[in-house]
Amino acid sequence: MSDKLVHTADHRGRTVVGYMSEGSRFRLDRLIVDYQINSVIEVGTFVGMSACFFAERVNQVVCVDTFDAVGSATFNPVGVHVIADQYRTFLANTLAYPNIRHIVLPSLVAAALPGLVADMVYIDADHTYEATVADIVAWRPHARKLMTGDDNGDRRFGVSEAIASLGIVDSGERIWWQSLS
Ligand SMILES: C[S@@+](CC[C@H](N)C(=O)[O-])C[C@H]1O[C@@H](n2cnc3c(N)ncnc32)[C@H](O)[C@@H]1O
Question: Which of 27, 29, 61, 136 has its CA 20 to 30 A from that of 49?
Answer without folding.
Answer: 136
